[in-house]
Write a structure and sequence with these properties.
Number of helices: 3
Order of helices and strands: HEHEEHE
Strand order of the largest sheet: 1-3-2-4
Number of strands: 4
Number of domains: 1
Strand content: 15-25%
Distance between the termini: 63 Å
């Protein structure tokens, strides 16, 4: 009976930790969607909000920083240069998060081949590794209504 209670408590703590980590993901700016939208939903938002892309041919560039914790796990994405179209920016950041985290596991961070050495007294929770993506080219088409 005690083993079952300990196992249940451990599962509860693991679930709480996973939920806490998901809630702490940092987006700047914060997207309107919780996950990357389907193409139709994205195109509808782009056509409504981005006059420069109303022809349906979307060619743009953006830049962002990927923020990783001291272990190399992705904890945030910060846009440093916009495409000029908020829904497109938001979709790209969400897609990048989903892509990077698809390859993460408990034992495999998304950022590898990096070693972080901290001096005594440095709190690892306060360390972020910044990986810059200086020029991401975006090309897609949306059918103009």
């Amino acid at each position: 009976m005690i083993r079952i209670a300990v196992a249940v408590a451990a599962l509860g703590m693991a679930a709480a930790l996973a939920a806490q980590n998901a809630a702490e993901f940092e987006f700047s700016p914060v997207p309107r969607w919780s996950k990357e939208p389907e193409n139709g939903e994205l195109c509808k938002a782009v056509m409504a909000e981005c006059p420069a892309f109303r022809s349906g041919d979307i060619e743009a560039n953006m830049a962002f920083d990927e923020l990783h914790d001291v272990r190399g796990y992705l904890i945030g994405i910060r846009m440093t240069r916009s495409t000029g179209c908020k829904p497109l920016d938001e979709s790209v950041m969400l897609g990048r998060k989903e892509f990077r985290q698809r390859f993460e596991s408990k034992d495999t961070p998304s950022l590898d081949d990096v070693t972080v050495e901290l001096r005594d007294g440095i709190d690892p929770a306060g360390v972020r590794i910044v990986q810059r993506v200086d020029n991401m080219q975006i090309g897609m088409g949306c059918a103009a209504d």
